[in-house]
Amino acid sequence: MVHILSFAVLASAAFAAASPTRRGMAVAEQRTLPITFASAGKPDANTNLNLRIALTQQDMTGLEKALFDVSTPSSALYGQHLSLDQVKAFAAPSDETVSAVTQWLQESGVSDFEMSGPFNDWISINVPASKADEIFDASFEQFVHIESGERFVRTLQYSVPQDLLQHIELVHPTTAFVKTLVKRPVMSVPVPGTANITERANPAPSSCNSVVTPACLQALYGIPTTRATQSSNKLGVSGFIDQFAQTADLRTFLTNLRPDIPATTTFTVQSVDGGVNTQGRAQAGIEANLDIQYTVGVATGVPTIFVTVGDNNSDGVNGFIDIINALNAESAPPQVLTTSYGFDERDLGSALATRVCNAYMTLGARGVSILFASGDGGVSGGQSQSCTTFVPAFPGGCPFHTSVGATQGVNEVAADFSSGGFSNVFTRPSYQASAVTAYLNALGNTNSGLFNPNGRAFPDIAAQGENVEIVSGGQAGLVAGTSCSSPIFASVISLVNDRLIAAGKPVLGFLNPFLYANPQAFFDITSGSNPGCGTNGFPARAGWDPVTGLGTPNFAAILDAAGL
């Protein structure tokens, strides 16, 4: 993905104030330069930087407790999801925090700033590079990604006043060296024939070993073909990097592979950061088409929204902050959101990773199931790369979302690209403690020293991710990756939510406590591994594993676990 920063020009009068008395400063974040980047010297002193200051939110510990109270099946509050106002009471900064930080900015000569975010928990400022150096005790430089040539301005260290450390979580983008989201899937032409994989007990055509279609998924997982009935039930699909979902390709896909539903079935479009959904064969996005075709074409009748994030973003992570802020601000966001993009955890740094992860917590507390593809690099991260220790993907390690790995074949073995492992930022949440401990005990000393055994483990579950048929640019082809798996699993959850709403029950919301409490609701995957970093990676085994999680969905068993 092309990482795009947008800069706004401010009148120089905004910085005409005299230099204030210097406060005692404390280093907020620092890092070494990643080996994939090189310094390209200082930017022009007048280069405008669009920076965001993340204000400390009032009670995220209390919100986390509330999230688990409404998401854990054994809790008396299970299913009593919070309202927007209830979440805001936890996530908004205090008046004291807002006052302290804005007063400092004014004292520093920054009078042009804007409160932003769904809870007014960010302050956006535009300052020249020289001013940013001054107020943050930093040295902003131009950096270039050696392989792609992509350039942006960052610093390896910045400081804030010592007395504001309790009020400021981070300043961004500063030390984050995020370039590309996960690579787009590549299409290949379907080849007749079957793979040499033995069929499992689930009856599915042997042709599904080499070409996966909605009919294959319906057979493998028991996904119903009957139409959903609840118009209030929504399924959101994230779209980034100018990937456009084509209505013509969806029509062809449905005509060919879902002839039992109207070929005119379509989706609505929501724009963030000026996002568009340009139509035309030459504009077809393989990833966007995949995500839309395996939601509209699998979650039969569920209203689907393509949330397209444009290039008019300056959040330093390709719109990842902006899309979740936009959904957090809605009174009725979609109950399920699937995203087939991600990063390597180390590129964000712990402060930014935590802030983004907490944004998923605020949305999850309101009853939204957030699913992400786990990545396609095995244990080497979001995509295959050289490494000496295992590279956790992001947001795979975030404990407040559901990470989806990949399988292949009718017999369902782990796909070797399925990213999985253990976070270096987030500790293991209680909902997965027992399952992960059992896996680590069985693993023994294998891969010792290459990963953090105390970290949040991922993925949580899995679905088919190899030889998945789509239509793009008018042509049928096959794609592979966990970017196939996430929309498939999201469709299953949306169909379960439809049944729950029809029965007068709350939707599933944040999934993980429910998933780990009901391992019997999944087809356990016990073969395969996810190699990388010069190793065989982690092996799949009985129970949870860091390749396929708890396994793949058994629709009937999930319904039963949900009390339907």
TrEMBL record:
Domain Peptidase S53 residue range list: 211-564
A molecular function (GO) term: tripeptidyl-peptidase activity
Keyword flag Protease: yes
Transmembrane regions: none
Signal sequence range: 1-18
Keywords carried by this UniProt record: Calcium, Glycoprotein, Hydrolase, Metal-binding, Protease, Secreted, Serine protease, Signal, Virulence, Zymogen
Cofactor binding remark: Binds 1 Ca(2+) ion per subunit.
Subcellular location per the Swiss-Prot or TrEMBL entry: Secreted, Extracellular space
EC number(s) on file: 3.4.14.10
Active site per database record: E287, D291, S483
Pfam families per UniProt: Pro-kuma_activ
CDD domains associated with the record: Peptidases_S53, Pro-peptidase_S53
Catalytic activity: Release of an N-terminal tripeptide from a polypeptide
Primary location group: secreted
GO terms (BP aspect): proteolysis
Function: Secreted tripeptidyl-peptidase which degrades proteins at acidic pHs and is involved in virulence.
Name of protein: tripeptidyl-peptidase II
Lineage: Eukaryota, Fungi, Dikarya, Basidiomycota, Agaricomycotina
